[in-house]
């Protein structure tokens, strides 16, 4: 392909994505590939670390350090993203995931894996929040929740497809091939992000004058605004702490409860629930009171974690994975939509902080579960503790968040 033909091909791709719906579709495909890389790698690395000589605590620690470095990197990146836009951050993040993953294909020692995993923190710091920021900037307010739900659907589908299709590569060809295949997915995700149009203000269809401006929580008084913002940060933190337990030790749970099955079956059920939860929650965020939509997803997440930790057989554990996935992915979609539609001009910066709250939950959940197991407690105790955290989040949300559709 000549240089001129390449430019024309890119223009055609941009033309497809010129509208908000087309842009959201491209974001969904790119996120499917890049999140698929991260989800599959995150769920496989703890077992690999233990094979290389690390204990349960080290297995959870490497993922937690990866997230911690990403949170620290996100602070200086905020200004870069504001100046260059979400598209630039998505491309940077996709490459930040892909290049270290490609190098992992030739690593055989624990320290090498840990160093490259920490290098991938640039991907987590740049890509995840930029997806929400790009959609918040390019999607009209009446459909923001649905666009977020569609992208969450795509990222959840990546968890369904990734582990179950990539884990067999480990047994048949080794971890080198496994990491190489994930790197190919990352390259494709970065290429699609390059086809996105530059970020621009969303043009909404004609709406009544009463809907042109969403009420800002600050209008209702400073104490209420602070309380709402605190809940919009605490919700992702507590949901992510439980999700971290599943991502770090779900493979071990599969090997003990689902013996004889593909280790990825548990993650298939987790993401199947998330597929339904993301779409329903995205629609509910646009249609109903955010308080009701978020509360239902938190309740489903907590019940799912409880079943996974205490159920005696495979079927209840898989049912728990369905509920956990629906609650987690649906809850994150509704929490992001609630923030994006209520915080006005400050939504972009707040969404990055909300992603950091989610990442901190991933750190705490993985470390706490690893410490509990290192101390001799069973894996069920970690899942039950995560369920109790979800119950606490549900109680706080129900008591403190205002019951208004436009809150």
Report the helical percentage.
Answer: over 70%
Query: What is the total domain count?
Result: 1
Along the chain, the helix and strand elements come as: HHHHHHHHHHHHHH
- Which regions have little confidence, pLDDT < 50, spanning 5+ residues? 11-18, 200-223
CATH superfamily: MFS general substrate transporter like domains
CATH architecture: Up-down Bundle
Helical stretch tally: 14
Largest sheet properties = none
Distance N to C terminus: 52 Å
Strand content: under 5%
Quickly give the structural class.
mainly alpha
The coarse overall form would be globular
CATH class: Mainly Alpha
CATH topology: Growth Hormone, Chain: A
Specify Rg, calculated over alpha carbons: 20 Å
DSSP, total strands: 0
**Average pLDDT, all residues:** 79
Protein name: MFS transporter
Transmembrane segments: 12-37, 57-76, 149-170, 176-196, 230-253, 265-285, 292-311, 317-344, 356-373, 379-401
GO molecular function, one term: transmembrane transporter activity
Domain Major facilitator superfamily (MFS) profile: 23-405
């Amino acid at each position: 392909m000549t240089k001129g033909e390449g430019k024309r091909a890119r223009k055609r791709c941009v033309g497809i994505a010129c509208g908000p719906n087309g842009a959201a579709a491209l974001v969904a495909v790119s996120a499917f590939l890049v999140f698929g890389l991260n989800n599959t790698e995150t769920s496989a690395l703890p077992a690999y670390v233990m094979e290389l000589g690390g204990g349960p605590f080290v297995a959870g620690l490497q993922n937690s350090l990866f997230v911690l470095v990403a949170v620290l990197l996100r602070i200086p990146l905020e200004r870069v993203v504001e100046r260059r836009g979400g598209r630039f951050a998505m491309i940077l993040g996709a490459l930040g995931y892909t290049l270290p993953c490609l190098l992992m294909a030739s690593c055989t020692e624990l320290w090498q894996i840990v160093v490259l995993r920490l290098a991938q923190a640039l991907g987590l710091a740049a890509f995840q929040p930029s997806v929400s920021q790009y959609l918040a900037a390019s999607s009209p307010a009446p459909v923001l929740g649905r666009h977020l739900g569609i992208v969450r659907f795509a990222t959840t589908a990546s968890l369904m497809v990734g582990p179950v299709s990539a884990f067999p590569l480990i047994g048949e060809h080794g971890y080198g091939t496994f990491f190489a295949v994930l790197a190919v997915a990352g390259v494709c995700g970065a290429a699609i992000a390059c086809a996105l149009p530059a970020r621009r203000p969303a043009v909404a269809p004609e709406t009544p004058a009463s809907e042109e401006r969403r009420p800002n929580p600050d209008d209702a008084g400073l104490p209420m605004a602070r309380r709402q913002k605190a809940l919009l940060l605490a919700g992702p933190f507590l949901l992510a702490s439980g999700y971290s337990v599943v991502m770090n030790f779900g493979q071990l749970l599969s090997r003990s409860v689902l013996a004889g099955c593909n280790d990825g079956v548990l993650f298939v059920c987790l993401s199947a629930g998330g597929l339904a939860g993301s779409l329903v929650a995205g629609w509910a965020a646009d249609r109903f009171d955010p308080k009701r939509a978020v509360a239902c997803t938190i309740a489903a997440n907590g019940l799912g974690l409880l079943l996974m930790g205490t159920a005696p057989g495979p079927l209840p554990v898989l049912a728990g994975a369905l509920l956990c996935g629906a609650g987690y992915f649906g809850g994150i979609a509704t929490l992001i939509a609630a923030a994006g539609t209520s915080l006005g001009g400050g939504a972009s910066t707040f969404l990055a902080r909300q992603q950091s709250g989610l990442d901190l939950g991933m750190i705490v959940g993985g470390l706490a579960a690893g410490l509990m197991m290192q101390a001799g407690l069973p894996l069920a105790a970690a899942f039950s503790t995560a369920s109790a955290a979800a119950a606490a989040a549900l109680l706080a949300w129900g008591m403190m968040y205002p019951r208004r559709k436009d809150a």
